[in-house]
């Protein structure tokens, strides 16, 4: 199976002392959350999986101990970006990006309608889960983490995992395992406090410096654009300032880390807005939370970068950006357009 991404983006629709006070609160608040423990996440983060597929992912993601719904979601997102019509140059097809030969051997009739349709998520999602569990069975006696070994078998084959007694020393395979395990955290509903970001203050400082700058759809802040930004261009530039490279559009930025609840927000968290509160792929706006119920954002054409309240009916959720989370995401989805 190979990655075949789909366009899924939408358009985005002052005072230094105030920001300084809010940023000071980042680290005192962080001290209260840093002690939050881990634990096995079994639920899905709010809206991270499109509503049409969430029941399938939740059900089939519990098929065997080596997988969970968040891990299955991470695989499907990495493979196809939730596009049931995706087709790669290598002829991998559908939401699960099955090669026809693999589908012939491992595809199942998940919805019991009498056929095995590689393009039907009701067959492809169950097939992805059963294939994972089959691979886990092949490498069940190999030392190490069962899930990581299963993912390595998915990428490099079960024989390589057995031969090397765990994840083989192939850069591609090791990177694949790391990407999926990192994305798993983004798709999982946190079971404890989300660890604070250490880069938050720097990202806020950058956004603060841009207050009053006119909005530009598609703006990346270049000299040719007069230093102007749209919403996701601003958040991308703010985190680039602190050494973290985010994807260009807001709905992909949502997957760059874990998702704190509204009452766990800290300055530096990205906050997202959508007209469909069940689907992160429909996110249309993003800002940088600064505390006190406010964000810095580039709102829309005709406005300037400014403070706005986040507590509006279209508030979707938040992401606490991490370097590993951002590295697990693509930055060049074919056909993606800026603006959101």
Features:
alpha+beta, single chain, 340 residues, six-stranded antiparallel sheet, disordered C terminus
Describe how the helices and strands are arranged:
Elements (H helix, E strand, L loop, with lengths): L15 H18 L20 H7 L8 H12 L19 H7 L14 H18 L7 H11 L1 H7 L6 H17 L12 H10 L21 H11 L8 H4 L3 E2 L11 E5 L8 E9 L2 E4 L8 E4 L5 E7 L1 H5 L13
Helix pairs in contact: 1-9, 2-3, 3-8, 5-6, 6-7, 6-8, 9-10
Account of the 3D structure:
The protein contains 12 helices and 6 strands. It is of the alpha+beta class and 340 residues long. The chain has a 6-stranded antiparallel β-sheet with strand order 1-6-2-3-4-5. A hairpin with an 8-residue loop joins β4 and β5. The chain has helices at 16-33, 54-60, 69-80, 100-106, 121-138, 146-156, 158-164, 171-187, 200-209, 231-241, 250-253, 323-327; strands at residues 257-258, 270-274, 283-291, 294-297, 306-309, 315-321. The chain is 37% helix and 9% strand.
Fraction of helical residues = 25-40%
Give, in spatial order, the strands making up the sheet with the most strands. 1-6-2-3-4-5
Strand residue content: 5-15%
Characterize the biggest β-sheet.
6 strands, antiparallel
Number of helices: 12
Radius of gyration, taken over Cα atoms and rounded to an integer in Å: 21 Å
The count of DSSP E runs of length 2 or more, i.e. the number of strands, is 6
End-to-end separation in angstroms reads 29 Å
Global mean pLDDT:
85
Structural class: alpha+beta
* Model regions low in confidence, pLDDT < 50 over at least 5 residues: 1-39, 331-338
Shape: elongated
N-to-C series of helices and strands: HHHHHHHHHHHEEEEEEH
């Amino acid at each position: 199976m190979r990655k075949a991404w789909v366009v899924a983006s939408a358009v985005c629709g002052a005072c230094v002392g105030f920001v300084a006070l809010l940023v000071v609160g980042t680290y005192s608040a962080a001290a209260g959350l840093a002690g939050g423990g881990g634990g096995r996440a079994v639920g899905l983060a709010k809206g991270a999986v499109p509503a049409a597929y969430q029941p399938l992912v939740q059900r089939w993601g519990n098929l065997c101990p080596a997988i969970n719904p968040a891990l299955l979601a991470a695989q499907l997102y990495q493979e196809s970006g939730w596009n049931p019509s995706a087709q790669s140059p290598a002829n991998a097809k559908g939401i699960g990006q099955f090669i026809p030969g693999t589908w012939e051997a491992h595809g199942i009739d998940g919805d019991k309608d009498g056929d095995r349709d590689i393009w039907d998520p009701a067959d492809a999602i169950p097939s992805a889960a059963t294939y994972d569990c089959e691979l886990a069975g092949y490498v069940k006696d190999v030392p190490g983490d069962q899930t990581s070994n299963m993912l390595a078998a998915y990428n490099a084959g079960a024989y390589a995992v057995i031969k090397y007694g765990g994840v083989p020393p192939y850069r591609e395979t090791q990177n694949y395992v790391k990407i999926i395990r990192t994305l798993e955290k983004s798709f999982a509903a946190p079971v404890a406090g989300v660890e604070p970001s250490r880069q938050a203050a720097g990202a806020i400082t950058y956004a603060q410096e841009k207050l009053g700058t006119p909005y530009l759809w598609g703006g990346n802040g270049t000299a040719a654009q007069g230093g102007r930004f749209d919403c996701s261009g601003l958040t991308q530039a703010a985190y680039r300032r602190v050494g973290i490279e985010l994807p260009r559009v807001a709905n992909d930025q949502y997957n760059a880390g874990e998702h704190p609840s509204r009452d766990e927000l800290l300055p530096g968290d990205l906050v997202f807005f959508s007209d469909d509160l069940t689907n992160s792929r429909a996110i249309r706006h993003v800002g940088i939370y600064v505390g006190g119920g406010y964000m810095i954002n580039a709102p829309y054409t005709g406005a300037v970068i400014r403070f706005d309240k986040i507590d509006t009916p279209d508030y979707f959720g938040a992401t606490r950006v991490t370097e590993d989370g951002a590295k697990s995401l693509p930055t060049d989805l074919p056909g993606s357009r800026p603006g959101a």
